[in-house]
Amino acid sequence: MFTRLLTTFAAGAIAATPLAAETDIAFALDWRFEGPSAPYFLAIDNGHFAAEDMAVEITAGQGSLDAIPKVASGAFPFGFADINSLVRFLDQNPGAPVTAVMMVYDSPPFSIVGRVSLGISGIDDLEGSTLGAPPPDGAWAQFPILAEVNDIDVSTITVEPVGFPTREPMLAEGNVDAVTGFNFSSYLSLARLGIPEDDITTILFADHGVELYGNAIIVNTDFAAENPEMVTGFLTAVAHGWADAIADPAAGAAAVIARNPAGDAELEARRLELAIDANVLTDHVRGNGMGQVDADRMDRAIEQLRMTYDFQSEPDAALYFTDAYLPDAEIRMIAAE
């Protein structure tokens, strides 16, 4: 039962409170204010949330699963999180009031980033290498699936637990041969440390048989049941924000730097472009619009999760994602054009 969550009362309070114009809405991100968070800031700056009668406050996160308990507890009605982490969370907390309502990373950013000069030119070079992996990292969590579907002998790999702040510096210093991470984060962080880009190898899990989805907008289901139009309005604003970011990544980076003055605008624009090209604007999204999941692929993704996770109950895709709140296809296609 999910009754152990200490803030269940907050969820009930959110669901029971009638919504008025310019409703204050809290949105929990998965990570720091970087390029891929630009669409949500543009949705604020360009008036898309305001057009839906919402005043949205965005909070940074600390990892792929950070937003899930925040939303499930009712502390935040909306969040951004890895759907694979959500699957495990709901299996371990049956009945928790949280689900995904809009897929954003149609291709997950899970990757291994290595250096050619350290012997990592492709996936076949991982055996016998030293791999740096932060224990809470989303890519590390899915690495066993990559290994399974590619017949990688993990017993030959030396895994070095590293922290997020030390991950790329250790690779830059040659203390590890490769690291797990997100393609748009580790690559650019390594380049910023002075490693030539032709010495950097990015091994995307999605290019090597891993059919998982990535991060999605999640919602507190009590809130959604009470305020369905608000949820659709939120997703409509998000779609417009992504359309703005895709059309002008530099403007997106500027919106990020306005909230994170210590950042580098050029770096964050590139990070956003990497996310758009590799994770957001897939062929499926170009053909069907942002937000949907393919039912057959989702079933295959769940079967891949079984390779490394023992479900307590039979998994049910309907618990993890619903398209009931998505805006019309015409709106979802504006970010895919």
Explained architecture:
The protein is α/β, with parallel strands linked by helices. The chain has two domains: 224 residues, D-Maltodextrin-Binding Protein, domain 2 (3-Layer(aba) Sandwich), CATH 3.40.190; 99 residues, 3-Layer(aba) Sandwich (D-Maltodextrin-Binding Protein, domain 2), CATH 3.40.190. Helices cover 43% and strands 16% of the residues. The protein is built from 16 helices and ten strands. The strands form two sheets. The chain has a five-stranded mixed sheet with strand order 2-1-3-10-4. Helix 2 crosses helix 10 and helix 11 crosses helix 12. The longest helix has 20 residues. The N and C termini lie far apart (43 Å). The N terminus is likely disordered.
Strand content: 15-25%
Q: How large is the radius of gyration?
A: 19 Å
Let me know the number of strands.
10
Q: What is the count of distinct domains?
A: 2
What's the helix count? 16
Q: Give me the secondary-structure category.
A: alpha/beta
Largest sheet entry: 5 strands, mixed
